[in-house]
Design goal:
7 strands, alpha+beta, 6-stranded antiparallel beta barrel, single chain, PH-domain like, 148 residues, 31% helix, globular
């Protein structure tokens, strides 16, 4: 398994970080969704979370979402302070439906903090869209044969 440092080097620049409450992806024993404080880092190509900021320095992320042009994010209707990210999760089998388009709900401490996260996510996803468009144009140009 790669070390956390090696992973982070390939994720691009760290754009934003901080603590948010994360809603459980599953259900607990009595079928109630629960919320737990986690430390999040947003990079150009990844949105990851850890148990704490200390863990971010020494351990692998507890969850890794791969950002690309199809990533969705925005306000969640659960409460005024909630936001969501919908993207593919790293670490699942390629053919597994569980990791595809996983939706993660988070809750911030204020509306302004929620808006800061959403603005940072927009920057990251827009960067991925731009990279994807450039790659497509390069592929198209390389497939064309110019006649002199």
């Amino acid at each position: 398994m790669e070390s956390p440092t090696n992973n982070k080097a390939s994720w691009g620049e760290l754009l934003f970080s901080g603590s948010l409450e994360k809603r459980s992806l599953g259900r607990n024993a009595i079928s109630i969704k629960n919320w737990k404080r986690r430390y999040f880092e947003l990079y150009e190509t990844r949105f990851v979370y850890y148990l704490s900021s200390c863990d971010a320095l020494t351990t692998e992320p507890k969850g890794t979402f791969i950002l690309d042009e199809s990533t969705e994010f925005g306000n969640a209707k659960l409460s005024p302070f909630c936001l969501f990210v919908k993207a593919d999760m790293k670490g699942f089998e390629e053919n597994s439906a569980r990791g595809k388009n996983q939706k993660l709900y988070m809750r911030s401490e204020s509306c302004s903090m929620k808006e800061e996260w959403i603005a940072a996510l927009k920057i990251a996803v827009d960067m991925r869209k731009e990279v994807s468009s450039c790659f497509f144009l390069l592929m198209l140009m390389s497939s064309l044969h110019f006649v002199h």
